[in-house]
Write a structure and sequence with these properties.
Layout: H1 4-8, E1 29-37, E2 41-49, E3 52-58, E4 69-79, E5 87-89, E6 97-109, H2 116-129, E7 131-138, E8 142-149, E9 157-162, H3 186-195
Antiparallel strand pairs: 1-2, 1-6, 2-3, 3-4, 4-9, 5-6, 6-7, 7-8, 8-9
The structure holds manganese (II) ion.
Length: 197
């Protein structure tokens, strides 16, 4: 799998981010959303597909309101075990700043089957077409979403849109700013960094 770009950007002697040697053994596909305070705050939206995490950076973060079409910039694949990464990327390194696991869960294509391999085939095709319709079963993000590639000059520009269903709401889900795997918030990690000098 193409993790060269991911690896090229990092010095694993300096950053605690995963090298990418763990494989998925789960029978479900997983997704993760990492809140990342780098040069600019953004949310990294990642879907497991064919052993890696296909990834988008969402500057405004995901929304449960179908009226919000959120720009999602397609970025390089990340290793599967990046799903659990939370902490501080030290200064001078790519993506320096704080990362929390803002949401995670399993996902499946809307018109999927119970077979992971079959679902990955469907998703690969949808991804190539630039029209991915999925169901997320996270702690914060739930229900149907669409990732649509924009017809623009910019090959990397997609939109992340909540579909109308029973989970659609105007409530701002980003206000729920805690990690789903720890008690961390970005602010907590920032103050930790100060304490340690
Ligand atoms: Mn990021």
């Amino acid at each position: 799998m193409a993790l060269e770009t991911y690896k090229k950007k990092r010095d694993f002697k300096q950053t605690a981010e995963p090298k990418g040697d763990k494989k998925s053994i789960d029978k479900n596909l997983i997704f993760v959303v990492q809140k990342h305070s780098a040069t600019r705050l953004h949310y990294d939206f990642r879907l497991e597909l064919n052993g890696v995490l296909i990834s988008w950076a969402v500057p405004k973060g995901p929304s449960l309101n179908p009226a919000n079409k959120r720009l999602a910039v397609h970025v390089e694949d990340h290793p599967f075990d990046y799903k659990d990464f939370e902490g501080i990327i030290p200064e001078g390194n790519y993506g320096a700043g704080q990362v929390i696991v803002w949401d995670k869960g399993i996902y499946m294509p809307v018109e999927g089957t119970t077979c992971k391999k079959e679902n990955e085939k469907l998703l690969s095709k949808a991804f190539r077409k630039g029209d991915v319709k999925i169901i997320l079963l996270g702690k914060k993000l739930k229900g149907e979403f669409a990732l649509i590639k924009m017809k623009s000059e910019d090959e990397k520009a997609w939109l992340l849109i909540k579909k109308k269903d029973e989970y659609a709401t105007k409530v701002d889900i980003l206000k729920n700013d805690k990690s789903v795997i720890s008690a961390n918030t970005i602010e907590k990690l920032k103050s930790k960094k100060k304490k340690n000098g």
